[in-house]
Amino acid sequence: MTTNSDPAAPLDLSKWRKVPNWLIAGGGLLVLIGAFVDRKQFGFSWLLAYMFFLSFGLGGLFLVLMHHLFDASWSVPIRRFCEHLAGLLFPCMAILFIPIALLAPQIYPWMQLLAKGKPDHALQMKEAFLNKPMFYLVAVFCFVVWKVLTSGLRSWSLKQDETGSAECTFKMRTYSYWGIFAFAVTLTLMAIMLVKALEHEWFSTMYGVYYFADSVWATLATVYVITAILKRNGQLKDVVHNDTFYFIGSLLFAFTVFYAYIHFAQYFIIWNANMPEETFHYVLREKGTWWDIGLIIIFGHFFLPFLMLLRIDWKLSLPIMIPICIWAWVMRFCDQSYNIMPTLHPAGFVVHWMDLACMAFIGGVLAKSFLKAFNAHPPYPQRDPRMAESLGVYTPPAPSSHAASHGGAK
Known about the structure:
The protein has 17 helices and no strands. The chain has helices at 19-37, 39-69, 76-87, 92-96, 98-107, 109-116, 121-126, 132-163, 166-194, 207-233, 242-273, 276-284, 290-308, 318-340, 353-376, 387-390, 401-405.
């Protein structure tokens, strides 16, 4: 069956090669201006862009871990560039964290209360976690874990290209066994410390899962687009087939439902309990145009992609899937704004020019880093033992030593 995901003409990407440089130059200039014009707005805009792009690094790491834990075959062709996405966590995201580290006292109200020596009751109860040294220790801990995980997985993956040794496969599985737990802990810590702590009075035991679900959802949309581009451009032409697009689309559909379930469950539990230290979070987000953003998230983040991804054939159609993936990025931005910006703009949703400047600069830096890593290595694993299976090629098992010593079966 021929689908729209297998076009004949290759893409000409030469005109797009300088886009990251333009984003870095233009965005960087505006970022510098913004840092001097309004430091608090700049801090929130940088945090918004940072958490948006942190999603893709964490989502890429999750997909790599899942590949090894489930010993998947369909994801072999996309594993390499998912490793590069995960590699953005260190050192890029660690370096880009510096503005947040410097501006944290102006971004987080709980730090201001501690500086004045007037912590409220909620902060007193959480002061063992919400204190300045812990804020920076959590960040260092997370970046160290991500460094160990991403560098270890990619180094053994590249060694597998050279030797094809089974040791490489087992080593990557070992990293994934402990890595999935470390991933869950570090993602939750960063989501709580950087976003949820903007409202330190708020209680939610589901926030880490909430950020995880939305991160993987947006990453899957990105992976679909990258896979389509690399297939059209020729790098993955021989290893990516319709099944690859179908499975990515199916996972995107699954995380559409999972995100909606987590978001609804968090809202429903808080609404049902009706406790002031929890409900104020949503009361604030029902004011002004934040109410409209909430409705956009309900219908645009769930109902629209859910209904469009129900059909199997649409998961294979680029004219349908590419707009869905772009829409997923828009919804991810809306969701992050919904979580971060009411602290700064309680009256309603605002797209500030500093938001766009920070998005452009951080996006340009990460795109340039990703392309550098991708161009430095083979586009897909060269000697992965599951590659033949992913291509639908049957390879008979090697004869056992016992059978070989007796001349084989008679």
